[in-house]
Write a sequence for this structure.
């Protein structure tokens, strides 16, 4: 049986076990805070928001594993992608289950709310898709679905965007965190839009140009998304929000943070490539 802390040959992998353990930490923290009354006057609602946030975070981390494994030349990182994706689905299920608890298990009320409220409708549909991806992530399903498996799992891209829309609407006026997460999602999608031949190039100079360009694109797109949201969905002056990105005098805006994070990734990737280049080549004895 293929257990989540072993490879396909049944060997124990400490890294995979450590990642699996870390995926329980957010849930464990929220359970502890619930038990100790540390979540204020509406603890269930705070936990609903927390589990939903971690579902989105883990979904994006799962999407980030492939570009990170490629850029860092770390193929074993791909071994934890399934665990992270399944964890995202589990947190999404917990998110809905806690909503049912908050409604005192009135299932008809829950169903009507999901049907009548747009942001709940799209959240529920996304949950069903993410759950389907988690269920079909096993080796048996990969073999059973064949080529259709990749087609099914590409739904993770559009429905990650739908999950972010759910996040925006639920956040109401202050959408700084959804905007920031959206900027990182733009980076992930922009990376996948880059031609495969470019992503495989080994030159450090080319890597610097590529990832610098991705950082700029994702930062600008983040500012654009923030401007569009405030302009279309709120009564806030979206131009003032956009102009706030011209300076850091009042602190970093989500677009600034996205650029800082993605530009920092460039430094990590280049450092990793330099370290591998500097390693001595092992010569096979004649």
């Amino acid at each position: 049986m293929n257990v989540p802390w072993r490879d396909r040959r049944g060997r124990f992998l400490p890294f995979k076990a450590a990642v699996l353990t870390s995926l329980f930490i957010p849930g464990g923290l929220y359970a502890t805070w619930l038990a100790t009354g540390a979540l204020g006057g509406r603890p269930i609602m705070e936990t609903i928001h927390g589990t939903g946030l971690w579902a989105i975070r883990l979904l994006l981390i799962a999407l980030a594993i492939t570009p990170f494994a490629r850029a860092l030349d770390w193929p074993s990182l791909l071994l934890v992608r399934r665990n992270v994706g399944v964890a995202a689905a589990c947190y999404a299920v917990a998110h809905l289950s806690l909503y049912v608890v908050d409604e005192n298990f009135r299932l008809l009320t829950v169903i009507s709310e999901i049907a009548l409220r747009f942001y709940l409708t799209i959240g529920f549909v996304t949950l069903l898709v993410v759950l389907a991806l988690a269920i079909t992530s096993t080796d048996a399903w990969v073999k059973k679905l064949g080529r259709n498996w990749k087609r099914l799992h590409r739904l993770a891209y559009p429905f990650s965007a739908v999950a972010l829309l759910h996040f925006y609407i639920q956040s109401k006026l202050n959408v700084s965190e959804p905007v920031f997460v959206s900027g990182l999602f733009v980076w992930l999608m922009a990376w996948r839009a880059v031609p495969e031949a470019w992503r495989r190039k080994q030159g450090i100079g080319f890597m610097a140009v590529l990832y610098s360009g991705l950082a700029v694109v994702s930062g600008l797109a983040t500012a654009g998304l923030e401007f569009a949201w405030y302009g279309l969905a709120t009564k806030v002056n979206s131009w003032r929000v956009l102009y706030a990105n011209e300076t850091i005098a009042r602190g970093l805006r989500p677009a600034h943070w996205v650029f800082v994070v993605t530009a920092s990734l460039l430094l990590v990737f280049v450092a990793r490539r330099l370290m591998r280049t500097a390693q001595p080549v092992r010569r096979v004895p004649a």
About this structure: The chain has a mean pLDDT of 90. Residues 204-233 form the longest helix (30 residues). The chain has 14 helices and no strands. The two ends are 42 Å apart (CA to CA).
